[in-house]
Design a protein that fits this description.
The chain is an alpha/beta fold and 335 residues long. The chain has 2 domains: 32-112 and 222-334, 3-Layer(aba) Sandwich (D-Maltodextrin-Binding Protein, domain 2), CATH 3.40.190.10; 116-219, D-Maltodextrin-Binding Protein, domain 2 (3-Layer(aba) Sandwich), CATH 3.40.190. The protein is built from 16 helices and 10 strands. The chain has helices at residues 2-24, 45-52, 55-58, 71-80, 91-95, 144-155, 180-186, 198-205, 215-219, 231-236, 238-257, 260-267, 276-288, 300-313, 321-324, 328-334, and strands at 32-37, 62-67, 85-88, 103-110, 116-119, 135-137, 170-172, 191-194, 210-214, 225-230. A 5-stranded mixed β-sheet has the order 2-1-3-10-4, with helices on both faces. A 5-stranded mixed β-sheet has the order 7-6-8-5-9, with helices on both faces.
């Protein structure tokens, strides 16, 4: 009889366990969000401020952050289900619009190119014409940094090619994003583009180097980095997406109103090994160029500018603004 009771008790435990799994997802954290970022840069300061200041926790969210080191890798992570949300260039949405569960931009973080043009010499009064007959390393072919750089070079009336002896600009797009700084220092290239805090770090290490301009100043407003998720995620988890974007918006407000030194302290946990002084310089740099969006809703005008930049690189059959962007949550947050 005792043996029968033990078996009955064991079966009851299994049943309770099964019911628990059914109703609570076997311990799954329903407030957890997997985020993949295209790279790690102070350019995304409001996002890291939101993390380190606890704004996501205030919304009841738990974030797990991974680094794709490339927009193509980040988009692959999203489409494969390894990430719920990615922080990447919206060109990835244009390239992936034909997938079954199409990705959507649901919030914009940065509104212009955040890369700085670094020279190996102390170029004063820099103009794009100084690139004539020179080599500049601009990132991976097909990535938004390289495409935007190509766009501004050609808009300045310069010709891209390898015939530098006859004034062509040799735009190198064969270097991965994370390797630009090291390749620049060891190659004969006269210029490169770098994001902060890498730009400040390389100039600090090499006193003859100088930050001479920004690509963003040359290109004007461009929807450069956005939060992207799959259409199905927005349908299934609109509340989580809204809480996520609300936390980012608080991060923006702090980043743009606090003293840069305080913002640097808020970023410190995300940039271990980078000095507070370098972080403060980077924050000031991005504040100066008005890098971040006060309104996370992407406009159709800026989307069309993005498509123009992509088409300047290669012709694409871009999705319509309505198919690429969902401003429902962003519009709700800004009223």
């Amino acid at each position: 009889m005792k043996k029968i009771k033990k078996i009955a008790f064991f079966c009851m435990c299994l049943m309770v366990g099964a019911l628990s799994c059914l109703f609570v997802g076997c311990g799954k954290d329903d407030n957890k969000i997997e985020v993949n970022e295209v790279t790690h840069s102070v350019f995304y300061a409001p996002f890291y401020v939101a993390i380190n200041n606890g704004y996501f926790e205030d919304e009841g969210l738990t974030l797990t952050l991974s680094n794709g080191q490339g927009s193509d890798v980040s988009m692959t992570a999203l489409l494969s289900g390894d990430a719920d949300i990615i922080l990447a260039g919206p060109e990835t949405v244009v390239y992936s619009s034909k997938t079954k569960d199409s990705p959507k931009v649901f919030g914009q973080l940065t509104q212009r190119d955040g890369s700085f043009i670094v020279s190996k010499t102390q170029d004063d009064n820099f103009t794009l014409d100084m690139l004539r007959g020179k080599t500049i390393i601009g990132g991976r072919a097909g990535g938004l940094p390289a495409m935007t750089l190509q766009y501004v070079i050609q808009k300045a009336g310069l010709t891209i090619g390898k015939d530098t002896a006859n004034g062509q600009v040799n735009l190198r797009t064969d270097v991965s994003f994370g390797d630009i700084a090291s390749v620049f220092q060891t190659s004969s290239a006269e210029y490169c583009t770098l994001f902060e805090p890498t730009a400040t770090a390389i100039v600090t290490q090499n006193p003859s180097y100088k930050i001479v301009s920004t690509v963003g100043a040359q290109s004007g407003a461009v929807p450069y980095t956005c939060f992207i998720t799959k259409s199905s995620y927005l349908k299934k988890h609109p509340d989580k997406a809204e809480k996520f974007l609300k936390a980012v918006q608080r991060g923006y407000e702090y980043t743009t109103t606090a003293n840069p030194a305080d913002v640097a302290k808020a970023l410190e946990k995300s940039f271990i090994g980078t000095s507070l002084s370098d972080l403060e310089v980077a924050v000031r740099q991005y504040t100066t160029i008005n890098a971040w969006c006060s309104n996370p809703a992407m406009t159709e005008t800026s989307y069309n500018k993005l498509v123009e930049i992509i088409n300047n690189y290669q012709a694409v059959n871009a999705p319509s603004f309505a198919d690429a962007v969902d401003n429902t949550i962003a519009n709700k947050l800004v009223g």
